[in-house]
Amino acid sequence: MPTSASAPASAFVDATASDSALRRFLHGLPGVDAVGLEARAAALGTRSIKTTAKAYAIDLAISMIDLTTLEGADTPGKVRALCAKGAHPDPTDRTTPRVAAICVYPDMAATAKEALAGTGIKVASVATAFPAGRAALPVKLADVRDAVEAGADEIDMVIDRGAFLAGHYLKVYEEIVAVKAECGDRARLKVIFETGELSTYDNIRRASWLGMLAGADFIKTSTGKVAVNATPPNTLLMLEAVRDYRAQTGIQIGVKPAGGIRSTKDAIKFLVLVNETVGADWLDNHWFRFGASSLLNDLLMQRQKLSTGRYSGPDYVTVD
Amino acid sequence: MSESTDVKQSDAKQSDAKQSDARRLSVFKTYKLYVGGKFPRSESGRVYEVQDSKGTWLANAPLSSRKDARDAVVAARKAFGPWSGATAYNRGQILYRIAEMLEGRRDQFVRDVADAEGLSKSRAAAVVDAAVDRWVWYAGWTDKIAQIAGGGNPVAGPYFNLSTPEPTGVVAVVAPQDSSFLGLVSVLAPVIATGNTTVVVASEKSPLPALTLGEVLATSDLPGGVVNILTGRAAEIAPSLAAHQDVNAIDLTGAGAGTDLARDLEIAAADNLKRVLRPSSATDWTAPQGTERLTAFLETKTVWHPTGSLGASGSAY
């Protein structure tokens, strides 16, 4: 059984020894065939998933959602309402699975933890000066500490894209290592690359490896705060990275596409990508998540359609 | 130039025209649905043959599936906010504009209606004129219906009590089967005049006037999605519209009075308390229509507001 990430795997100790060694390693990764990647993602998006397979996919997708609210206007009441929704997504049908986690800002983590007590739903908290990540390391670490102490089970950190794009890979690496140390055994670490700001597929592959070497438990596409968020090609590329990493080290790492996934159809396309790229080992909310808010409503409407035979409408799900 | 050469020249021109007619390949039209302001093919890819009253093949029309109905409802729901929120005056202007465009396409509609219903050119022209006039008539009602369907109510207390009519929402319309154009206009115009958005299931036998109407609507300032036109079998499409939880009302005119289809649709519509307009037998579409169809898809909102003085100062609201 694959284990969770702890320290950089022994095979790659040399790669992270110095800035130049890390650069050599990351730039030595094979280049991405952009046309092939997009064609593959598009081809997998045409699979027809119907009837019982669709019902399974919808329930699986619901159970993989990190139900998210990351607004300046978040109030304790809103967070509690979201937690209640996560625990019973469809109050008219108690067979609906619960979501995987509720994702909030650190100051709301305690509220969410309290509201979710006894449900088994995790509290995920963004940290490290989310979403820009523009703060000094001690500030970022304090942010993480606050979130963990407030009861967060999972920390979603952002990498320093400025440093990454400037080629200071070791700085990014050390930051992730420090945050990982701060999380300790108490929280799983998701590392957000903000793929929309990394410009190239090659950079996304490098960031994926960098994150995995530094001890990420999850690699995550985006914050949801920029124009381009999770796309099927980006996610496919990251899935290939975790597949290759496990093949070489035996360590399994999770993937979380976030932002811009709004319809059941999109979610099912991502599940097909997972199944076809890394296989059934990842078809579980311990290893794959959707960062989403409006997606849940669409999944619920599709679920209602499947169970009643009638098309549902937005009047029959909550307004978040 | 002498008279005889003139005649010869015009002969030559005529034979030229004949030759080019013979050589020209006919351009067949692909009729498509009108959904969300666009002209998609049916999601199912199916079409069916449309014949004129004598059984001659006219064209292929899309044979819609229930997924087309679902997509149309999504488009109609999206359009409902802006359309119901537009001022009544603005809606009226847009409906007038549609009437103007209908007038400009009069010849095409006369041909369509003559083919579809087996009428002579002059009878068909009368039907089209009546339809345009009816559209204008309903356009005039947009900013007047509130005065007759709402108003101040006398109540036994110190309150203003005001009722205003509001559109019901997304209305599914099963259009009349026999009167493919005048009947269609008579059921469609009143629904959108009051601010509802619609999904129309056109006459199964003669869908072409409805599809041509879609082309007119697309070029008349009417926001996409306010009217969505589906063609195909009413018995296939209408049940999913009747059961759809996001459709607020259904007009069963085209299902026919006393038919099994009308009964089944009414039962399916009961699940989410849809407002249902039941079909009446043998409506004469050429007769003037009342306001009944306008008020059928309106909800009344009543507001109570206290009146009288505010304390000792004597000032009032």
UniProtKB/TrEMBL annotation, chain A:
PANTHER family: DEOXYRIBOSE-PHOSPHATE ALDOLASE. Belongs to the DeoC/FbaB aldolase family. DeoC type 2 subfamily. It holds the Pfam family DeoC. Keywords: Lyase, Schiff base. One of its GO terms (biological process) is carbohydrate catabolic process. Signal peptide: none annotated. Pathway: Carbohydrate degradation; 2-deoxy-D-ribose 1-phosphate degradation; D-glyceraldehyde 3-phosphate and acetaldehyde from 2-deoxy-alpha-D-ribose 1-phosphate: step 2/2. It comes from Streptomyces candidus. One of its GO terms (molecular function) is deoxyribose-phosphate aldolase activity. InterPro entries: Aldolase_TIM (IPR013785), DeoC (IPR011343), DeoC/FbaB/LacD_aldolase (IPR002915). One of its GO terms (cellular component) is cytoplasm. It catalyses: 2-deoxy-D-ribose 5-phosphate = D-glyceraldehyde 3-phosphate + acetaldehyde. This is Deoxyribose-phosphate aldolase. Its EC number is 4.1.2.4.
TrEMBL record, chain B:
The keyword Oxidoreductase applies. The keyword S-adenosyl-L-methionine does not apply. It holds the Pfam family Aldedh. Residues 1-22 are annotated as: Disordered. This is Acyl-CoA reductase-like NAD-dependent aldehyde dehydrogenase. Keywords: Oxidoreductase. Residues 43-276 form the Aldehyde dehydrogenase domain. The lineage of its organism: Bacteria, Bacillati, Actinomycetota, Actinomycetes, Kitasatosporales. InterPro entries: Ald_DH/histidinol_DH, Ald_DH_N, Aldehyde_DH_dom. One of its GO terms (molecular function) is oxidoreductase activity. PANTHER family: ALDEHYDE DEHYDROGENASE-RELATED (PTHR11699).
